[in-house]
TrEMBL record:
It comes from Pseudoalteromonas ruthenica. Residues 238-377 form the Tail specific protease domain. GO terms for biological process: proteolysis; signal transduction. GO terms for molecular function: endopeptidase activity; serine-type peptidase activity. It comes from the Bacteria. This is Peptidase. One of its GO terms (cellular component) is outer membrane-bounded periplasmic space.
Length: 524
């Protein structure tokens, strides 16, 4: 069973929004009588299959209403609205969610969204996205803004023209990104909605005041989910490093190749850089967990036990299958049928007893499931997870993307717990010495360190990687950094394909499981 997972974001929810109202229960039979226009009765739901595939707007809305009531994790927190009361199908879907908040006051569900089905399939299966070929982080969204390149994708115009991590976007098409109040022009340039959009970027180069103008055309390009793999020699053995950006279909073969490469280097420790990994396939996280920890640590251990709403205590409401624990997976699944490896092939493993994970507020979904799954290994097996960086986004929830009438809908349908029965990290995981987060994260051993744009990823002098190596050697953390505190967020320059035009705020945003932001994020 392949489950798409987005843990408390995601490529996973778009803008953190405040909605009006709070839902009445779905079993409320004392509410208003039938609508004279549609026959709607609050709290009375027909089987969703009655409306499935019927593409008149009203039928689509009735399908969404019943489907949400059947499968949404918090179905009894949805305000039941007359489908005729909201004209647009997507607008109606957007209110079919809880308005409750977590214990820290954060919205409970930031992960409710939809996409054209062809766009979703293209992104997840091929890794293809629309953009300029580089990712960036909005360090500060209000003037004076700070928008910094995090990395360029290999074999794109951006990398060919030398755009590097640490470059700041000073202007787009002559509009001052730092100070201008013309946010529409900035967002339109940063998030093109079609190929062939020519945009002139003015970058301030890393570590200097020198500027460079580069013109890029928007295009579809294939993301490289496992980018940098290498070995760092130390006085106490080799340490492996892997930059892992996305749990998408092409990543499965790349992860196997990376683990084989690291195993041949005889590493004694591993650093997995997931600071910009927003998630994807849960099964792939279970595979990576096995490849890191090996059979001795994972044999007989649950990676995740999925839990659906209280209407479905024993059965998966999407597949109809009995609920069974999700194991660490020790074989190749074959997400990409053209990968050259047959499904069922045994996976390699590093058989480590510890892993260092580099994190930021964009570490979401299946990435957090990997952390939680490995933390669930019984204490008697002495496996350690060490976090270095900032707090993760906090998404212990998942969904099955569901198509209806050429639109794929994403609504939270399950949560999960690890082998120890733990799964409540709605405010994320964070290193134990973090102090300035607005949330109440689960604290994990490690060091709070701010993202470092002055060095390339994989450079042993880059702050997070350096802290991991230092903690490995001494058990001590560097001096406290100024952190984003779960406010900063990174952006894939995969444009606003969804067509949304809302202005974002300065929190962690993502719209799909692979954390490819689909909504503009600059505001005045």
């Amino acid at each position: 069973m392949i489950i798409k997972h987005s843990f408390r974001t995601a490529l996973c929810a778009a803008i953190i929004a405040t909605l009006n109202g709070c839902g009445g229960g779905s079993d409320d039979t004392t509410s208003p009588g039938p609508s004279p226009d549609t026959g709607w009765v609050a709290g009375v739901f027909a089987d969703s299959e009655q409306f499935k595939g019927q593409c008149a707007a009203l039928d689509q809305k009735y399908w969404l209403r019943s489907w949400s009531n059947e499968t949404y994790l918090w179905y009894d927190e949805i305000e039941d609205r007359d489908p005729a009361s909201i004209t647009d199908v997507i607008d109606y879907f957007n209110v079919l969610k809880t308005n409750d908040v977590t214990a820290s006051g954060a919205p409970k569900d930031n992960f409710h969204f939809s996409l054209p089905t062809d766009e979703w399939e293209q992104q997840q299966q091929s890794g293809s996205v629309l953009g300029y070929g580089f990712n960036f982080r909005v360090v500060k969204a209000t003037p004076p803004r700070e928008v910094v390149v995090t990395y360029s994708e290999p074999n794109t115009d951006a990398s060919t023209q030398g755009i590097e991590r640490g470059w700041q976007i000073a202007a787009v098409n002559g509009v001052d990104v730092v100070n201008s109040d013309n946010v529409d022009a900035i967002n339109a340039a940063l998030f093109p909605t079609q190929t062939g959009v020519e945009t002139q970027f003015t970058f301030t180069l890393r570590g200097s005041n020198q500027q460079q103008r580069i013109t890029l055309d928007s295009a579809q390009f294939i993301q490289d989910p496992v980018m940098k793999v290498g070995t760092l020699s130390t006085g106490t053995g080799n340490v492996g490093y892997m930059q892992f950006n996305d749990h998408n279909a092409p990543a499965e073969r790349q992860l196997v190749d990376a683990v084989n490469q690291l195993a041949s280097a005889n590493i004694s420790d591993l650093v997995v850089d997931m600071r910009y990994n927003g998630g994807g396939f849960l099964a792939m996280a279970a595979q990576l967990g096995y490849m890191i920890a090996g059979s001795n640590n994972t044999n007989g251990v649950i990676f995740e036990q999925t839990i659906f709403n209280d209407k479905n205590p024993d059965t998966n409401p999407v597949t109809g299958d009995p609920l069974t624990p999700f194991p660490f997976i020790d074989e190749y699944i074959g997400f990409d049928p053209d990968s050259g490896i047959s499904a069922g092939t045994a996976l390699p493993s590093l058989n480590l007893n510890r892993v260092f994970v580099l994190t930021t507020g964009n570490t979401c979904s299946a990435s957090e499931a990997l952390i939680n799954g490995l933390r669930g290994i019984p204490d008697s097996r002495n496996f350690e997870v060490v976090l270095i960086g900032d707090g993760t986004c906090g998404k212990p929830y998942g969904f099955y993307p569901t198509d209806n009438c050429d639109t794929t809908f994403f609504t939270i349908q399950f949560t999960g717990v690890n082998d120890k029965g733990f799964g409540e990290y709605a405010d994320g995981f964070a290193p134990q010495n973090i102090t300035n987060t607005e949330r109440a994260p689960v604290l994990v051993q490690g060091c709070a360190v701010a993202d470092d744009f002055n060095h390339l990823l994989g450079d042993r002098n880059e702050a997070l990687l350096s802290a991991a190596l230092g903690y490995r050697a001494t058990g001590n953390c560097p001096a406290a950094s100024t952190l984003a505190g779960l406010k900063g967020y990174a952006v894939s320059n995969a444009a606003a394909n969804s067509g949304a035009a809302a202005i974002g705020d300065n929190r962690t945003h993502s719209k799909l499981q692979n954390n490819r932001i689909m909504t503009p994020v600059i505001k005045d």
